Amino acid sequence: MFQLFVFMSLSFWLLTGVFADSGEVKSVMEGDSVTLESGVAELQEEDVVTWLFGPKKTQIAEVDTDAAISSTSDGDAVGFRNRLKLDNQTGSLTIMNTRIADSGVYQISISGKKKPTTLNFSVTVYAHLPVPVLIRDCSSSSSSSVQSNCSMLCSVVNVSAVSLSWYKGNSVLSSISVSDLSISLTLPLEVEYQDNNTYSCVINNTISNQTTHLDIKTLCQPCPATSTPDPQTPLHSSLHPSPRPPSTTPSNRTSGTSSPTTSSPNSQLILISAAAAAGSLISITIVGIIWICKNSKKTDQKEPVQKQIRDDHRDDEVTYAAPTFYKKNAQRSEDEVVYAGIVTRR
Question: Looking at residue 114, which CATH number applies to its domain?
Answer without folding.
Answer: 2.60.40.10
